[in-house]
Amino acid sequence: MKLKYFRYSQNKGMSLIELLIAMTIGMLLMLGAITLFSNNKRIYREVNSMGRLQENARFAIELMIKDIRMAGYFGCAAQFSSTNSVINSTDFAYSLDAVDGYTGGAWGSGSNYTPDGIIANTDAIIIRSLSGDSTDVITTMTPDSTGNVQVTKDMTTDDKDEKLADPSLLFPGEIVVVSDCSNSDLFQISEVTNSGPQTDYLMHEASGTPGNSTTNLAVIYGPPAEVRRFEPVLYHIATGASGAPSLFRSTLELDLDNLKMDFQAVELIEGVERMEILYGVDNNSDTVADTYVKAADVGGTTATGGWDNVVSVQIALLFRTIRENFNSPLNVNTYTLLNSDAYDPVDDHHRRRIVTNTVQIRNRSN
After folding, report:
1. Is 246 inside a domain boundary?
2. d(C-alpha 57, C-alpha 122), whole Å
3. Mean pLDDT on 128-150
4. Count of structural domains within the chain
5. Per-residue pLDDT tens digits for 107-138
């Protein structure tokens, strides 16, 4: 039997041409993958940036709307401006105008207060109201010559640690209003004196910062009088921590160590470049705005009440993206907010959007 021998041919590799073709195809596939990844990343950044801009705009507008709607809220009292103030100061912080506007470097009410770091040619607004939380004046109140107000104890303290744990508690140095729906007084608490297991006296003295100009309130308050905290809120635009323009919200806060009130600003939203505000003035007492004007022109309208006749507010904010997208075209646009002059920002790669809203002041509506 003869054996057959099979001779296997020697394995052969790729030719140079085949190798070059394979490398070219691989490079094309890799380039396509890189391009796809880069485009997806660019689109993600763009969508994320615009999404953040829209979310910032929604948050800022909703918060401002909430505050503006409450302007002049005074519990059961009919008019905020009819309150008797015994605060020993004419400072802007303690004004009883429910709303006031800043434009052209001045407040419509004539105040000389300048918001901290405000960017030139931007508007500002302050809204004044009372806290929604209240403490009742009790029935056993005893009239006295110092005008003390005896209240239920559940909202008052003279303990610093207790105040830090519960900011809603009234503390010496805070500004409050006592009102029985017919009369009301704005004063500074000088001392909280525990007169028993259930009640406190809110002391009312002429000393302090700023203190009170008299120790006598307009009337002796009894039920159904309530005591509420005075809560002005200020919005303005200034340079934020990152160096970009930002929207700031300031509230009147108490320095617990010195028992002194002062505006404390909090940076709310980064990337807010401009704020334009118009005020709706009611000229015929139907609680509907007849004309919208700048803050400086409120007193020059045909309304006899000036700021007391402002029943609504138009706000416009110009937002920009936080980071520049250098893959997008250069932004050379100009922007007009309400009836302001056109604003021409520095040409850059930020995306911008104007957001507007008209807010009715509820406490001046039917």
Report:
1. yes
2. 17
3. 71
4. 1
5. 988 888 889 899 998 999 999 998 888 888 77
